[in-house]
């Protein structure tokens, strides 16, 4: 009997415990929606009007997310291609120690989601958890509370303000070639591909005719004409950068220097009947122009500052895209290192007269053209925006 009575007491205790837990769970389930109805989650969505992945999230996913949570989800949409938008994103990156300056970027509280896959998958989970917990306040971005108060006072269907901050999702659709810079990108893209084809043809011809001199295998007149065309395109690109530099002293100096180098190279080629008669100092001059351009891009990417783009294109959309880094290394830094190595190789080739150094310089330049071909293709067709600084670097590498 004692054993039976003990077992019975244990069963009753277990039953009471289960009933207590069930009642507690029921209270929580009933209270959670009531509590969540009063809760609000605040966030900031950073985008660029010319970012393809921003288009995808805003047009294909955000409507469903906003419909699920309604007024309980208050998100500001910040256009990073504007001055104020770029400043807010820089503050967010610094405050939250975000390892990338790519868009689309969604900040919910102290959490952040980057990209067209991460945002639709991760954001709803974080929002639901935040509502159950009683809501999530403003992200810890300096000055964001005042920005919220200003933006939320505007009607949801109002057009975006000049500041680039609005309370409703924008219509991010935009024709790819509406921007003349994207047309320039297409021209440069064909030039890059053509230069690699011409180089391959010259190498094949040299091997077939057993000629070791690449300049003879590649008709010197044809090569000279290509260089002149490259110089003229470079002059045009550098001129757009100079005209759009405004009061920015750094871009004014750099674009003037690059424009001058293109002018010297083009005039020298026009005054020489054959490529072999051109000054040997043209190569280091061209490489120095590449160092200046890549150095500016590296500065923009590492310091996370707004670029001065010139009168064409949208450099900031490109520099804040997910393609601005490769394996965590900014593309501008990769270009700066590449141009610097090429300059060292040229100096070695001049001092030691080693043919291996010249061959290495050719290989480096060809690799640079291939890399530039990839990046230039991404700008109009994937990112949806073109960086004239990047196009200038591509022309320099091809020359």
What does this protein look like?
This protein has 399 residues and is of the alpha+beta class. The chain has 14 helices and 7 strands. It has helices spanning 2-38, 52-69, 83-96, 115-132, 144-151, 180-208, 214-217, 220-243, 249-270, 282-303, 315-319, 331-352, 355-383, 388-398; strands at 41-47, 73-79, 105-108, 111-114, 165-166, 325-326, 329-330. The strands form 2 sheets. A 5-stranded mixed beta sheet has the order 4-3-1-2-5, with helices on both faces. β6 (325-326) and β7 (329-330) form a beta hairpin. α10 packs antiparallel against α14. The longest helix has 37 residues, at 2-38. Mean pLDDT is 78; it is low at 1-6, 11-20, 22-36 and 155-160.
User: Mean pLDDT score, rounded?
Assistant: 78
What is the string of helix and strand elements? HEHEHEEHHEHHHHHHEEHHH
Helix % is: 55-70%
Count every beta strand, where a strand is a DSSP E run of 2 or more residues.
Answer: 7
Radius of gyration from the CA trace?
29 Å
Tell me the overall shape.
elongated
Through-space gap between termini: 100 Å
Strand order of the largest sheet: 4-3-1-2-5
Structural class: alpha+beta
| Total of DSSP H or I helical runs spanning 4+ residues | 14
Query: What share of residues are in beta strands?
Result: 5-15%
List segments where confidence is low: pLDDT < 50 over at least 5 consecutive residues. Answer: 1-6, 11-20, 22-36, 155-160
Can you summarize the main beta sheet?
5 strands, mixed
């Amino acid at each position: 009997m004692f054993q039976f009575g003990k077992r019975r007491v244990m069963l009753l205790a277990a039953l009471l415990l289960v009933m207590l837990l069930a009642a507690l769970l029921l209270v929580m389930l009933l209270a959670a929606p009531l509590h969540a109805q009063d809760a609000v989650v605040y966030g900031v969505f950073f985008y660029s009007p010319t970012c393809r992945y921003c288009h995808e999230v805003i047009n294909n996913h955000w409507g469903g997310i906003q419909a699920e949570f309604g007024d309980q989800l208050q998100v500001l949409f910040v256009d990073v291609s504007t001055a104020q938008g770029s400043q807010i994103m820089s503050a967010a990156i610094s405050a939250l120690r975000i390892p990338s300056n790519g868009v689309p970027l969604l900040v919910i509280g102290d959490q952040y989601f980057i990209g067209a896959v991460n945002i639709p998958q991760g954001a709803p989970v974080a929002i639901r958890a935040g509502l159950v917990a009683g809501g999530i306040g403003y992200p810890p971005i300096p000055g964001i509370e005042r920005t919220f108060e200003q933006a939320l006072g505007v009607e949801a269907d109002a057009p975006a303000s000049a500041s680039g901050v609005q309370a409703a999702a924008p219509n991010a659709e935009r024709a790819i070639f509406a921007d003349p810079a994207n047309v320039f990108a297409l021209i440069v893209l064909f030039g890059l591909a053509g230069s690699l084809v011409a180089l391959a043809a010259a190498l094949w011809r040299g091997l077939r005719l057993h000629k070791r001199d690449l300049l003879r295998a590649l008709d010197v007149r044809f090569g000279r004409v290509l260089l002149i065309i490259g110089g003229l395109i470079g002059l045009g690109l550098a001129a757009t950068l100079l005209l759009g530099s405004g009061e920015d002293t750094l871009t004014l100096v750099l674009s003037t220097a690059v424009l001058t180098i293109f002018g010297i190279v083009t005039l020298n080629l026009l005054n020489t009947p054959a490529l072999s008669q051109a000054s040997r100092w043209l190569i280091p001059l061209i490489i120095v122009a590449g160092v200046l351009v890549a150095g500016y891009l590296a500065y923009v990417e590492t310091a996370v500052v707004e670029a001065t783009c010139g009168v064409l294109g949208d450099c900031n959309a490109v520099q804040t895209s997910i393609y601005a880094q490769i394996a965590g290394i900014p593309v501008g830094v990769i270009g700066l290192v590449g141009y610097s190595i090429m300059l060292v190789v040229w100096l070695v080739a001049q001092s030691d007269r080693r043919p291996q150094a010249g061959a290495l310089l050719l290989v480096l330049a060809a690799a640079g053209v291939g890399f530039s071909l990839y990046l230039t293709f991404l700008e109009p067709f994937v990112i949806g925006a073109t960086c004239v600084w990047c196009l200038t670097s591509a022309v320099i590498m091809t020359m």
